[in-house]
């Protein structure tokens, strides 16, 4: 993460379908769909992906969650 980020936004995605890509594949697909200037860290465990995105602009947390939810690979979703 860059030092200009105050706190990273954490977003969790969970596998919704057994036929969905495994976590390691899903996180690569997810990262490929995110803006290239976002600093990201992630953890993959079983049917769960935890993504931490550094963004310091006002309203960044909501924007990150919206973009990640919209970029989720098929069969993966941000729980509500």
Largest sheet: 4 strands, antiparallel
Distance between the termini: 26 Å
Query: Reading side by side through the largest sheet, how are the strands ordered?
Result: 2-3-1-4
Question: Averaged pLDDT, please?
Answer: 88
Provide a short characterization of the protein structure.
The protein has 80 residues and is α+β, with helices and mostly antiparallel strands.
Layout of helices and strands:
Elements: E1 9-15, H1 23-32, E2 39-45, E3 48-54, H2 60-71, E4 76-77
Antiparallel strand pairs: 1-3, 1-4, 2-3
Question: If you had to describe this structure to a student in words, what would you say it looks like?
Answer:
The protein is of the alpha+beta class. It has one domain (9-77). The protein contains 2 helices and 4 strands, in the order βαββαβ. It has helices at 23-32, 60-71, and strands at residues 9-15, 39-45, 48-54, 76-77. It has a 4-stranded antiparallel beta sheet. A hairpin with a 2-residue loop joins strand 2 (39-45) and strand 3 (48-54). The longest helix is centred in the last third of the chain and has 12 residues, at 60-71. The protein is elongated, with a radius of gyration of 12 Å. It starts with 8 loop residues before the first strand and ends with a strand.
List keywords for this structure.
disordered N terminus, 4 strands, elongated, 28% helix, 80 residues, 4-stranded antiparallel sheet, alpha+beta
């Amino acid at each position: 993460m860059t030092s200009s980020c105050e706190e990273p936004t954490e977003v969790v995605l969970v596998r919704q379908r057994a036929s969905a890509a495994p976590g390691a594949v899903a996180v690569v697909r997810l990262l490929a769909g995110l803006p290239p200037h976002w600093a990201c860290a992630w953890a993959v465990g079983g049917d769960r992906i935890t993504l931490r995105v550094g963004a310091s602009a006002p309203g960044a947390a909501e924007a990150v969650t919206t973009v990640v939810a919209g970029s989720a690979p098929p069969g993966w979703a941000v729980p509500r």
